[in-house]
Design brief:
The complex is a heterodimer. Chain A is of the alpha+beta class. Chain A contains 18 helices and 12 strands. Chain A has 2 domains: 18-222, 2-Layer Sandwich (Cytochrome Bc1 Complex, Chain A, domain 1); 245-451, Cytochrome Bc1 Complex, Chain A, domain 1 (2-Layer Sandwich). A 6-stranded mixed sheet of chain B has the order 1-2-6-3-5-4, sandwiched between helices. In chain B, helix 3 runs parallel beside helix 8 and helix 9 (268-281) packs across helix 12 (349-367). Chain B is globular. The N and C termini of chain B lie far apart (47 Å). Classes of the chains: A alpha+beta, B alpha+beta. The interface between A and B is large, with 83 and 83 residues.
């Protein structure tokens, strides 16, 4: 049969009903029922992410988060791991830019016990000094590993070149060697005491559970948590980016060039978010995006080329990423620049616009199929302060984006004059990259680039 | 221990006259449906001089077919609001798309068009472009990545040169260069036939409707001819001696892949292998993490997994990265000592229960997604010709006890059945 089938009638999908409640001590509780299987995901999200750190102490949020797993006033780290894992879920707390998080999926019958343990972890950590020392060593080992990994180096050095010395985002969430070495037990205790309070905490539960029952469980587990500490919140330093430049970071053993091109962007709550989401899908978000079709399918320079906005509450980083064969580095960069110019020069085609919109609308139910994905989405909604009906109106707002909106957003938010180009590749690339003539060019050895 | 009985995936099975085996698993909680197709062909089926071809061929399946243009497959599915991809493994190649359920017919039509009529769309230019894409993929995933070559070095170490699992899945640059359009034709005719494929549809669809659509789209595709059998698949139960390879590389820290030859996927022992693997290396409460990371501080990260190979022999692998200042040799000795201790001292019941609890949660969590339910069903049908195994897996885990683990480690984890692939920093060579 050779005729392309038409779709059946569209079937209704509604985002799960969400109940929002508050415990007696001020913890926000968000519950969404999803009852396909007898499991539930718990996400404890604390407004204590890395963005609020002083860049000179970069990494303290992550070390505090990881330190939560190292024991409580009642249990050693080993015993804590054993207690969680007996429930079928490992303890892996971590910090992102905007929140410190504990996330667990368990069988619904174990939800009550899981919440009791999560409460113990958040409210009475021990932060044993020897274990914090181990975590510091582990982070330093991660940094060493990153230094030999072209992908990690490209991501981290791109940010370093892009943002000025006062900006927290110039260093990765876990910090750099020079900041991590100084993270003492005192620094972790101070971060915890200043930032981890009931009023800064949100507990999301998604899964096979009744909202009232869920609230009762959270109240039972966390209700007696009090904190008299003054809030330690500091506002993030406004992040400005550096002027356009090209940075070649040389690594003699490279057989490919890892490329990052981008600049600072607007915050997650910016009204242009929907236009930028459609723009990004067309430019480099989808497989059939301009960047991927150009660099991969038309030229065979790469396995993949894509763009993204890395959203944070206070801003974003817009970045185009690809890894290309060494001898195509200059041509690939020229194609990237061509696509950046084109997206600002003229309206996207009707076909491109409808592909992006129809994809983003249609894929919506697939994004929230699992309890984990649902909890993560609701956590992000809370962290970014998005409206309560955000997920109910998302598809409509995406559908309203026009080609003119995309062009206006491109002209406002994509700034060729600010693009930082970072390439991790062989030293022979220097003579080629000069020809790009994009801002000032620097050439530096990988080892010096990180620690120099 | 309570045996879980509240997780049940519904299954309807049938087979078309052309040999296509189909499973439908209905779930109406979300209006989406997953289509998943496993072809029982992988790198093991490549002929000498054509390493990497099965995977290159997978790329060609996205280059259009009689009624679908180049890259249109991606566009059609994404425009419908779907997600999709393909993947190639040693013994199978998978194609899948998950779409809003009112697009099921479209998804099936796309798969049937390339199963029934791929060749009219194949051109030399497309082959050359995808060859270039795949060479970049090789560099990106292996050659330019610290430890990246483990993907081809470990199977090469663990399977003898004559064995179909020995050679590189991604392929050598020379062999990728050698691939011709006539290879595409031949490979397609031999392996991409309905009687060598397994189709699963999971999600918002009634079985009768799914069946009618499958018959409509796939019913007319002819059965294939006899396929050349894989030769030399059978292997002794053990390696015989400890196989060792040390790789000096551009890496910061030593890392070891310690592998054991174990019974194939789907045997009673494979659930014991999964539990043993979790007991040793899954999450921070595992033996290796507690001992090597938390207590001795000789390692910074630990993982354990099986390859899930269904013929010949499977592999259980421990993957451990050293701490700063720990040599490759010290790392290998430390990991081996933990395995020896497991053999000599046995296990505590709580360790086994911990492993089963984690495996069970992971398994049930994965069943939430239509994409992974469909993939799991295709795997059970392709490897074991039995979709119902999806509903037996949790009970299989829960039947494993300390005695079974002890017997397993005594049988398969002693020195005569180990293979170690050890990466060490280039700078440290000669000083370890």
């Amino acid at each position: 049969m050779s005729t392309r089938p038409l779709p059946d009638a569209i079937r209704d999908y509604r985002f799960p009903r969400v109940d929002r409640l508050v415990t007696s001590n001020g913890i926000r509780v968000i519950v969404a029922q999803l009852s396909r299987l007898p499991v539930a995901t718990v996400l404890c999200s604390v407004d204590a992410g890395a963005i609020r750190e002083d860049v000179r102490a970069a990494g303290v949020a992550q070390m505090t988060a990881r330190g939560l797993a190292e024991g409580t006033t009642k249990r050693t780290g080993d015993a804590l791991a054993e207690s969680f894992e007996a429930l079928g879920s490992a303890i892996e707390p971590d910090a992102g830019w905007d929140a410190l998080e504990l996330r667990h999926t368990v069988r619904s019958s174990r939800l009550r016990d899981l919440l009791m343990l999560a409460s113990e972890v958040l409210t009475s950590p021990a932060f044993p000094e020897t274990e914090l020392g181990r975590l510091r060593d582990e982070r330093l080992a991660e940094i060493m590993q990153r230094d030999t990994d072209p992908r990690g180096l490209a991501d981290d050095l791109f940010a370093r070149k892009l943002y000025g010395p006062e900006s927290r985002v110039r260093f990765p969430i876990g910090g750099e060697a020079e900041t991590v070495k100084g993270l003492s037990e005192f620094a972790v205790q101070s971060w915890y005491k200043g930032m981890v309070h009931p009023q800064r905490t949100c507990v999301v539960i998604a899964g096979s559970v009744e909202p009232n029952e869920a609230l009762a469980m959270v109240e039972h587990a966390f209700g007696s948590w009090t904190s008299n500490a003054a809030t330690g919140s500091t506002d993030p330093v406004t992040t400005r980016d550096n002027p356009a430049a090209t940075h070649l970071v040389t690594r003699t053993e490279s057989v490919q060039s890892e490329i990052r091109v981008g600049h600072a962007g607007p915050p997650r709550t910016h009204p242009d978010y929907f236009a930028l989401t459609v723009l990004n899908a067309i430019l480099g978000g989808l497989f059939g995006s301009r960047l991927n079709l150009n660099l991969r399918e038309a030229h065979g320079y790469t396995y993949g080329a894509f763009s993204t906005f890395q959203w944070r509450r206070d801003g974003s980083t817009f970045v185009i990423s690809t890894a290309v064969r060494s001898d195509a580095t200059l041509q690939a960069l020229r194609e990237v620049m061509t696509e950046v110019t084109r997206i600002r020069a003229e309206e996207v085609s009707r076909s491109e616009l409808t592909l992006a919109i129809e994809h983003l609308q249609g894929v919506f139910p697939i994004r929230f199929e699992t309890t984990d994905a649902l909890a993560v989405a609701l956590g992000a909604q809370h962290v970014f302060g998005l409206p309560t009906d955000y997920f109910d109106v998302y598809r409509d707002l995406i559908g309203k984006v026009t080609a003119a909106d995309v062009l206006r957003a491109a002209r406002e938010h994509i700034r060729p004059e600010a693009l930082q180009v970072t390439v991790i590749g062989g030293p022979a690339l220097e003579e080629h990259l000069v020809k790009l003539e994009h801002g000032e060019m620097t050439v530096i050895d990988a080892a010096t680039a990180v620690h120099g | 221990m309570t045996v879980v009985s509240d997780v049940h995936v519904p299954l309807e099975m049938f087979e078309l006259d052309n040999g296509l085996r189909v499973t439908v698993s209905s779930d109406h909680t979300t209006p989406i449906v997953a289509v998943n197709l496993w072809y029982h062909v992988g790198s093991a089926n490549e002929r000498p001089g054509r390493t990497g071809f099965a995977h290159l061929f997978e790329h060609m399946l996205f280059q259009g077919s009689a009624n679908v243009g180049a890259n249109e497959h991606f566009e059609i599915v994404q425009r419908a609001g779907g997600t999709l991809n393909g993947s190639t493994w040693l013994d199978r190649t998978t194609y899948y798309e998950t779409v809003p359920s009112h697009y099921l017919s479209l998804a099936l039509w796309l798969e049937s068009d390339r199963m029934g009529a791929l060749l009219p769309a194949m051109t030399q230019e497309k082959l050359d472009t995808q060859r270039s894409v795949v060479k970049n993929e090789r560099q990106w995933s292996m050659d330019n990545q610290p430890y990246g070559t483990w993907w081809e070095r470990l199977p090469a170490l663990c399977f003898p040169p004559s064995h179909p699992f020995h050679h590189s899945l991604i392929g050598s640059m020379e062999d990728l260069d050698a691939a011709k359009l006539s290879d595409v034709t031949e490979f397609f005719a031999t392996y991409y036939t309905p009687d060598n494929a397994v189709l699963t549809i999971a999600g918002d669809v009634e079985p009768e409707h799914a069946r009618a659509l499958v018959e409509e789209h796939f019913g007319a595709i002819p059965r294939g001819k006899a396929r050349p059998p894989l030769s030399g698949m059978e292997l002794p139960a053990h390696f015989g001696i400890w196989q060792r390879e040390v790789v000096p590389d551009h890496v910061a820290l030593p890392r070891i892949f310690l592998a054991f030859r174990i019974p194939t996927f789907g045997t009673d022992d494979s659930s014991v292998a999964a539990v043993t693997s979790a007991l040793l290396g899954l999450k921070v409460g595992s033996r290796l993490h507690r001992s090597l990371v938390r207590n001795q501080r000789k390692a910074t990260s630990v993982a354990a997994f099986t390859f899930d190979l269904a013929r010949g022999a499977d592999l259980l692998v421990l993957d451990v990265t050293a701490s700063r200042g720990i040599s490759g040799q010290a790392l290998e000795e430390s990991v081996a000592r933990e395995v020896d201790r497991l053999i000599s001292d046995g296990v505590r019941p709580a360790e086994v229960e911990r492993a089963i609890a984690l495996l069970t949660t992971d398994y049930v969590s994965s069943l939430q997604s239509a994409t992974s339910r469909a993939d799991l069903i295709s795997k059970y049908v392709t490897y074991l010709d039995d979709a119902t195994r999806i509903n037996a897996q949790i009970a299989d885990y829960q039947r494993v006890d300390g005695l079974a683990v002890t017997q397993f480690v005594e049988s398969y984890m002693t020195e005569r059945n180990r293979a170690s692939l050890l990466y060490v920093p280039m700078d440290a060579v000669g000083s370890t």
